[in-house]
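User: Please fill in residues for this 314-position structure.
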């Protein structure tokens, strides 16, 4: 394995960046859900969000030279076998998570689905860090890292206990767990592509195009299932593309510095905190902020603290 390089950015600043990335994911989720509900089709809503991001990144690439140079470097690295084509499929991971949500969130409920996702993210984070897939060298699974991962999973379970979820269907929970692992792999793969491209717009465009192809195929095969689409005209419903790009850039830039696990825990914390704020400022039907939700946030903050302490020792 390659040796880890010294950080050029303070660790605390990187963690704040991870929290902000998570908050952008939460904002993207809120706007994307609203768009999908308005349209009446979660797959078409996802396609519009990814398509919007792809257009913005493509226009940036067309009028700015560094992203074009990054694409040339990616192409050269693939042809010279310095970069596996597998890493270019990271965008598919995001689409698979959306698909998993469509399949498993209903039978499980959102709380248990979140537990499955976070459990998979933590498992994948520890494993992929140990393998060094982000190109930042291997990070061994210390006791602090394992405890922090377990705390993050416990944060999700606290919400489930509060909601009284007792019976669990095994297959949907496995799907959610696998989706969480895929999410961790996606973060590492994007970091590997960025390392070659040396430009975050280039890496983001490759990510979006891969995801758009897959979700477009899904929409094309389900056209006959939903003919009652309503395309909204409210501009704010399409802001998910901007939030998605911001979150992608943040995760792609940070993963090589923080590692997959620490990035995962900080983004989950950012999502929870931002989710609390959005629920308070813009409540939706069924919005409920209770002690269990606050406990979940507290547990993830403690997990971030443990990982921060572990990272400072390295």
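Assistant: Residues filled in for all 314 positions:
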């Amino acid at each position: 394995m390659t040796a880890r390089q010294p950080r050029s950015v303070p660790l605390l600043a990187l963690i704040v960046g991870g929290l902000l990335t998570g908050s952008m994911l939460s904002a993207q989720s809120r706007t994307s859900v609203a768009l999908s509900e308005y349209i009446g089709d979660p797959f078409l809503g996802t396609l519009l969000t990814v398509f919007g991001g792809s257009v913005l990144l493509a226009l940036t690439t067309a009028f700015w030279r560094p992203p074009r140079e990054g694409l040339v470097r990616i192409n050269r690295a693939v042809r010279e076998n310095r970069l596996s084509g597998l890493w270019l499929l990271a965008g598919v991971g995001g689409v698979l998570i959306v698909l998993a949500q469509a399949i498993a969130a209903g039978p499980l409920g959102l709380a248990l689905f979140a537990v499955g996702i976070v459990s998979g993210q933590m498992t994948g984070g520890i494993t992929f860090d140990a393998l060094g897939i982000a190109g930042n060298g291997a990070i061994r699974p210390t006791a602090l890292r394992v405890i922090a991962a377990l705390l993050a999973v416990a944060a999700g379970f606290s919400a489930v206990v509060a909601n009284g979820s007792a019976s669990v269907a095994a297959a949907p929970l496995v799907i959610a767990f696998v989706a969480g692992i895929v999410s961790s792999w996606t973060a590492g793969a994007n970091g590997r592509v960025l390392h070659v491209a040396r430009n975050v717009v280039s890496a983001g465009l490759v990510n979006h195009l891969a995801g758009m192809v897959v979700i477009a195929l899904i929409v094309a095969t389900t056209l006959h299932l939903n003919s009652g689409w309503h395309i909204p005209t409210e501009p704010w419903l399409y802001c998910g593309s901007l939030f998605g790009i911001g979150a992608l850039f943040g995760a792609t830039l940070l993963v090589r510095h923080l590692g997959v696990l620490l990035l995962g825990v900080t983004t989950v914390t950012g999502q929870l905190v931002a989710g609390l704020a959005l629920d308070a400022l813009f409540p939706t039907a069924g919005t409920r902020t209770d002690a269990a939700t606050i406990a979940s946030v507290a547990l993830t903050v403690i997990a971030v603290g443990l990982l921060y302490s572990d990272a400072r020792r390295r």
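For context: Residues 17-313 form one domain.
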